[in-house]
Amino acid sequence: MTAKTLFAESQTATDTVTPKIPERASLPDQPVVTIEPSKSWVALNLRDLWNYRELLYFLTWRDVKVRYKQTLLGAGWAILQPLLTMLIFTLLFGRLAGIKSEGIPYPLFAYGGLLVWIFFSNSVTNSGNSLVGSANLITKIYFPRMIIPAAAVAAGLVDLALAFVIQVVLMIYYGVRVTWAITMIPVLVILVTLLALGVGMWLSALNVKYRDVRYAIPFLVQLWMFVSPIIYPVNMLPPKWQLALTLNPLTGIIQNFRIALFGNQAFEWKSLGISVVITFLVLIYSAFSFRRMEKHFADIV
Fold this sequence. Notes:
This protein is mainly alpha-helical. It has 14 helices and no strands. It is globular.
């Protein structure tokens, strides 16, 4: 048998045993993703929040623009609100009632507390109503719903920065010297932001389920103001009431915010520590509670 014949036979055998390649199975053009609600407490999925960080930025600026759209004074309202409130407090409580202000002029004392309080109260109110106000967005596309109340709180930081300019002007007018303690301001701002986020996020989730929560929010905020040391100093109260007041996380924040501004005494580390612990407990509970209720938002919003 010649080599040519052997080669021909081997080719024929190869053709015989070579299996037929099946046709490629048809696949959908886009992958199918099914999103199902969990049946219990779920993880926070912080990576998902990070992936949607640009959406947080755009929603924040949307809230800022909508707030001052077609307004006469625009962003000037962020300055007028604490300024006019400070003037009223100074007249009623500083002069008529004669409330002491820890050795600093009462306008400075009141405005320093109002900076923190107005930011906190506006952030809680806006974030508490944010989910209901964004119902059309929630029912159309998927994204971490936690971004909506977070954007409402972040938008309040713009107002806080504008109002802080008046604080600087008042400190210059009254001749207050800046000390190293002012470096604590960013830390305290972050702390009150986290507290506002925790409270606002929890209220926003409740507001979706129970619509009368939106009527309770202004009442809750109003009561919270009177149990916070905005009008009066903490040392004005009896010792037993001072201890009870420190359980309010805003107490340590406002106290130390004034100290950071004016540098007139040592920091109140005990009250600040209590504020830090309570703030993070509120934030963690609110985040997990929000995630648990999130699965029903699109159905009932």
